Amino acid sequence: MPFENISSVDGLKQKANILRISIIRMLEKAGSGHTAGSLGMADVFAALYFGVLRHEPKNPKWGERDRVVLSNGHICPVLYAALAECGYFEKEKLMHLRELGSPLQGHPHLGSVPGVETSSGPLGQGLSTACGMALAAKIDEKKHVVFCLTSDGEHQEGQTWEAAMLAAKYKLGNLVQIIDRNYIQIDGKTVDVMPLTPLAEKYKAFNWNVEIVDGNDMEKIYNVLKKAAEKARDGCRCAPTVIIADTVAGKGIKSIEGDYKWHGIAPKGEEAKKMLEELGAK
Amino acid sequence: MAEFTINEKMNLETDIFSLQIKKAPTRDGWGKALLDLGKKNKNIVALTADLSGSVRTNWFEKEFPQRFFNCGVAEQNMASVASGLALEGKIVFFSSFAVFSPGRNWDQIRVGIAYNNLNVKFSGAHAGITTGPDGATHQALEDIAIMRVLPNVCVLVPCDERESYKCAQAAAARAGPVYIRLGREKLPVFTGESTPFEIGKINVLKEGADVCIVACGVEVFEALKAAKDLAEEGIDAAVLNCHTISPIDKKTIVEYASKCGCMVTAEEHQVDGGMGSAVCEVLAEKKPVPVVRVGMRGFGESAKNGMELIKHFGLDAKGIAKACKEAIAKK
To answer: Is B177 on the interface with A (CB under 8 A)?
Structure first.
């Protein structure tokens, strides 16, 4: 049975909050992992998985499902939280992130977790993989959408631009990329490590449709994603779409918002407790 | 004088040392197989990175333009696009020069193809010093090493154009990733239509008792010539065609180490990490015997043709025969 989407902004916001609570709990228990990006993308994941995607959590291989490739695999806590909340697997499993024998590997592994479309982690590869999936859909004349989530930092990988060229060449209108534009990466601010601006102009020059949205404003994200998905589902041989989602790393926890130091660490004991209180966790 | 008799069961061409023997590069076998496979199976798609003609995927391209994608000069993208297509159930063939693919896109192959264990069959053409005039930058001498170390990846090195065709056919029929190493040089087509080919099973081309030569690719024919020359000197050398480097045929390697008491390995690849190393790994664990490895110990260089380099670096029949005597002396 297809997943019943939520169309109310408040309903989606509630889901985003649930995802944030799961993220803090699972990272605290795991003792390591990526907090900032996972929290920053919670709104996008809530809008995507609960509002926009056509999918069947109990039938994860459903042929007509929309595909989601998470290229920046390190923010998998938000992916796992969303999959569990949708019913792909029991929420209890979230508490075993990064443990020996757990399906929830430190970076996503194909076959371990229902709903994970490919193994990912090494940056710059996901957009290419999504292009391959979109090409396959074109060959088979299928109408589903291939969503690909990438980070801004990984746009420093040349391969991302190789994929951007290919997507435009083959008119992969069924491909929608969402960039987590949070302006940070593990070593600092993107502007210091390796500037990416002007990102939108770069994509325009690569012949993509470009949308820019506040990635933490639920109403705006929901509308832009819904519009992009409808267009992509048309099956048109037209330009691919990129949504540049301006997000705040660590969104939801005031004390860490925008702080690159939280890119690759997990909250501990008392710290996590305070974060959960801030999110209103019971 | 020892007798030089080819194993009849191998059904090789008659008079393989004749100057009139047909010659063709292994890349042609790949191209022909891909075309034939495309006719039979609509699920087969092919990718290339601006070397369609050189790697012979243009034959498929002409027939099936809807299932062919030229990725431009972008081997990393090509490997990951291949994984995306395979995730959707396609059997994907991609190819470039071995120095670029798998040379440049190893991480993409590792994570997207090997870790995912997908149905992707990829060839690295113009491998080895027989690439010739283009020089060291274009002579892949490390590809076997970096592919055989990857879990799930089957590594094949055909010895002639006919075996190359069989490799591609067998790759399509096998589940999971397969790497096929191809060459540019026209080589004698000495295996026959009915020469057996089974992934993971060494072909014993000639029985022998004094020394066993394990060879792959261009070196298989050189090994046969060496065995013929050695026979005239009274040395009885076995010749094994080790077309599958991973998973390697441990049983046959151990059997011939026991029978002959020493081994020579021959490949146009760095001796460290290549087929010779793979054979040594088997022997060290199962049946330690003296081994002499023939292969490259550094980078190559330009020459007017590939066989000139084979001779220059001692990878010819003469070099192999010399190695055989060294191995025997170590027994």
So the answer is: no
In B, which residues are within 8 Å of A140 by CB distance?
88
* C-beta atoms of B88 and A118 within 8 A: no
Is residue A113 in a domain? no
CA-wise closest residue to B236 among B267, B218, B261, B255 = B261
pLDDT at A234: 81
Residues B297, B175 share a domain: no
Q: Is B175 on the interface with A (CB under 8 A)?
A: no
Q: Are residues B112 and B181 in the same domain?
A: yes
Supply the CATH number for residue B35's domain: 3.40.50.970
Given CB atoms, is B65 within the 8 Å cutoff of chain A? no
CATH number, domain of A142, equals 3.40.50.970
What is the number of structural domains in chain A? 1
Residues spanned by the domain of B64:
23-188
Do B102 and B236 belong to one domain?
A: no
Confidence (pTM) = 0.97
Place of tokens 């019913």: A87
In sequence order, the β-bridge partners of residue A237 are: A172
A159–B76 CB contact, under 8 Å: yes
Contacts of A273 by beta carbon, 8 Å cutoff, 6+ apart: none
pLDDT digits (tens, 9 = 90+) for B67-121: 999 999 999 999 999 999 999 999 999 999 999 999 999 999 999 999 999 999 9
Considering the domain architecture, whether residues B38 and B165 belong to the same structural domain is answered as yes
Which residues face B120 on adjacent strands?
B92
Asked whether residue B181 falls in the same domain as residue B251, the answer is no
Residue A17 lies in a domain: yes
Phi, psi of A245 (to 5 degrees): -95, 105
Q: Do B82 and A135 touch (CB under 8 A)?
A: no
- With a CB cutoff of 8 Å and minimum separation 6, the contacts of B261 are B210, B211, B289, B290, B331
Over 90: is that where the pLDDT of A265 sits?
Answer: yes
A177-188 confidence digits (pLDDT tens): 999 999 999 999
